[in-house]
Amino acid sequence: MPGITREEVAHLARLARLELSGDELDHFAGQLDDIIGAVARVAEVAEQDVPPTSHPLPLTNVMRADEVRPSLTPEQALSGAPAQEQQRFKVPQILGED
Amino acid sequence: MTVTELVSYEAALAGYDPVMGLEVHVELGTKTKMFCGCSTELGAEPNSQTCPTCLGLPGSLPVVNAIGIESAIKIGLALNCEIAEWCRFARKNYFYPDMPKNFQTSQYDEPIAFNGHLDVQLEDGEIFRVEIERAHMEEDTGKSTHVGGATGRIHGASHSLLDYNRAGIPLIEIVTKPITGAGERAPEVAKAYVAELRELIKALGVSEARMEMGQMRCDVNLSLMPKGSTTFGTRSETKNVNSLRSVERAARFEIQRHAAVLESGGTIVQETRHFHEEDGSTTAGRIKDNAEDYRYFPEPDLVPVAPAREWVEELRTTLPELPRLRRNRLREEWGVSEHDMQSILNAGAVELIVATIGAGAPSDQARKWWMGELARNANESGRALDELPITPEQVARVAALVASGDLNDKLARQVIEGVLAGEGDPDTVVDKRGLKVVSDEGALGTAVDEAIAGNAGIADKIRGGKVAAVGALVGAVMKATRGQADAARVKELILEKLGVSEG
């Protein structure tokens, strides 16, 4: 029986850098378990001859020519950045003190 | 952290068999990024080659670069791989600011090329077959600058700065199957494999594959198993090893380190390691545990790639002669030893010599100049041979001037020096510097007479039978003519005038 445990939800939250309280974990674990259970019913209907779908359109090989198109200016690129320095995106410390 | 006392290489190999896995990333030489039309030109101002797609802004959609796919197929074919009839991209999710999207678009369980091999030739001529697991398409990350720590290291940095010009440049990752049975030659095999792969990539014209510029980089996975065992040990992964020599050193160091840990009853930790150029050692990086849960899933914004078989076969017909076979053919044509050919390859001179021969020079002359004077100059100025400001055509012209007797070797070296100094092409340098062999017998005769008169003592010795002393007189004449005489002719003239015959 597919489903998701509270521990798995906590693990995923950590991977997604989401801080969840104990109450929230209980709440979301229950909801997600319901959702996964509902989606799993699709698998019961699909026979072996139905391949999994990752895209709703029956398209393949959509490609573009290797031709340069205008980029944003650095000012435009950085316009949404919370912080910048030396024309670069400034991000907080990546590794904590060891 | 404890420092492990290394076991000697010989002792390590006496007890264990190394198993390697090599992952090589190649940056393709496309004009634009893998999923958007931003330029890939190097050296641009920070964040001047980005767009909503490669910045991961909401609502943007990627479209794959046709040359990226074509290059991946060519690499796969040249590595004797099968080419997928249908494959998808996948999202590799991770939080690290080098990717503004918070995922890297890559391929997971459906690589475009798989199950191949590459035969590499070791220095003594032995052929070793390296099996290829897969080659898949992905994209490069942005460039981080760490501020506030010691010497730009991430440890101790107060914050980091990101330039996303490189984010999204197409990469092909080529992964070998476990390389077993190489024994003590494992480090040499690793180096030869990466070298051969680099030559192949260059021959295909899909990338310049300059390792020193990060266009090609290698991760070395290595483990040891006790001799006689067939169960692989725990591996370490030494990341971003960026020269051929470093690949060999990293493998060698890890063999010694693993053996030391195992011998002392310890266990190898599965982790990434950093290689240090200064002393050839590696140190621990991240521990690879379940925290590295990439949650791959098929990329919903890109449709599958299904290369038509006709296209694949058409690309197969465009593949160049394999570098190893071509080198062996050239080696026979030039009549040089395996060892000399290896030196020529290591010096990056193969194509330059081929081009110089193509411009009319005899092969021995082409080799002589590129591997002699020019290799020395490149070495001294810290440049690659093909970065020197002299063309194969110019080298061929110098060789032609020597062949016609207009220049001797000494003058030819001066002409090359002039070309390298930007004084113009060989004929211009000859004119400007007045470099011509003095072939006027009258002028030469006068110089010879003067040399004999000015060195009477030496002349007497020669008359007395000490023919070897003639060198001093030849030297005097060459000096007087500022090197512009044909030394062999000068020697003949001196002996003639002194009435002595050689031998």
From TrEMBL, chain A:
Keyword ATP-binding tagged: yes
Gene3D superfamilies named among the record's database cross-references: Glu-tRNAGln amidotransferase C subunit, N-terminal domain (1.10.20.60)
Gene encoding the protein: gatC
Family: Belongs to the GatC family.
EC number: 6.3.5.-
Keyword terms of this UniProt record: ATP-binding, Ligase, Nucleotide-binding, Protein biosynthesis, Transferase
Catalysed conversion reaction: L-glutamyl-tRNA(Gln) + L-glutamine + ATP + H2O = L-glutaminyl-tRNA(Gln) + L-glutamate + ADP + phosphate + H(+); L-aspartyl-tRNA(Asn) + L-glutamine + ATP + H2O = L-asparaginyl-tRNA(Asn) + L-glutamate + ADP + phosphate + 2 H(+)
Subunit structure: Heterotrimer of A, B and C subunits.
GO MF term list: ATP binding; glutaminyl-tRNA synthase (glutamine-hydrolyzing) activity; transferase activity
Record protein name field: Aspartyl/glutamyl-tRNA(Asn/Gln) amidotransferase subunit C
Keyword Zinc-finger among record annotations: no
Domain of life: Bacteria
Listed PANTHER family: GLUTAMYL-TRNA(GLN) AMIDOTRANSFERASE SUBUNIT C, MITOCHONDRIAL
Family matches, as InterPro entries: Asp/Glu-ADT_sf_sub_c, GatC
Region annotation Disordered: where it falls in the sequence: 70-98
Automatic annotation (TrEMBL), chain B:
Superkingdom field: Bacteria
InterPro entries: Asn/Gln-tRNA_amidoTrfase_suB/E (IPR017959), Asn/Gln-tRNA_Trfase_suB/E_cat (IPR006075), Asn/Gln_amidotransferase (IPR018027), Asn/Gln_tRNA_amidoTrase-B-like (IPR003789), GatB (IPR004413), GatB_Yqey_C_2 (IPR023168), Gln-tRNA_amidoTrfase_suB_CS (IPR017958), Gln_synth/guanido_kin_cat_dom (IPR014746)
Ranges where the Asn/Gln amidotransferase domain occurs: 351-498
Keywords, comma-separated and alphabetical: ATP-binding, Ligase, Nucleotide-binding, Protein biosynthesis, Transferase
Reactions performed catalytically: L-glutamyl-tRNA(Gln) + L-glutamine + ATP + H2O = L-glutaminyl-tRNA(Gln) + L-glutamate + ADP + phosphate + H(+); L-aspartyl-tRNA(Asn) + L-glutamine + ATP + H2O = L-asparaginyl-tRNA(Asn) + L-glutamate + ADP + phosphate + 2 H(+)
Biological process terms in GO annotation: glutaminyl-tRNAGln biosynthesis via transamidation; translation
Keyword Transferase in record: yes
GO molecular function, one term: transferase activity
EC number: 6.3.5.-
Cited PANTHER family: GLUTAMYL-TRNA GLN AMIDOTRANSFERASE SUBUNIT B MITOCHONDRIAL AND PROKARYOTIC PET112-RELATED (PTHR11659), GLUTAMYL-TRNA(GLN) AMIDOTRANSFERASE SUBUNIT B, MITOCHONDRIAL (PTHR11659:SF0)
Task performed by this protein: Allows the formation of correctly charged Asn-tRNA(Asn) or Gln-tRNA(Gln) through the transamidation of misacylated Asp-tRNA(Asn) or Glu-tRNA(Gln) in organisms which lack either or both of asparaginyl-tRNA or glutaminyl-tRNA synthetases. The reaction takes place in the presence of glutamine and ATP through an activated phospho-Asp-tRNA(Asn) or phospho-Glu-tRNA(Gln).
Family: Belongs to the GatB/GatE family. GatB subfamily.
Subunit comment: Heterotrimer of A, B and C subunits.
Protein name: Aspartyl/glutamyl-tRNA(Asn/Gln) amidotransferase subunit B
Organism field: Streptomyces jumonjinensis
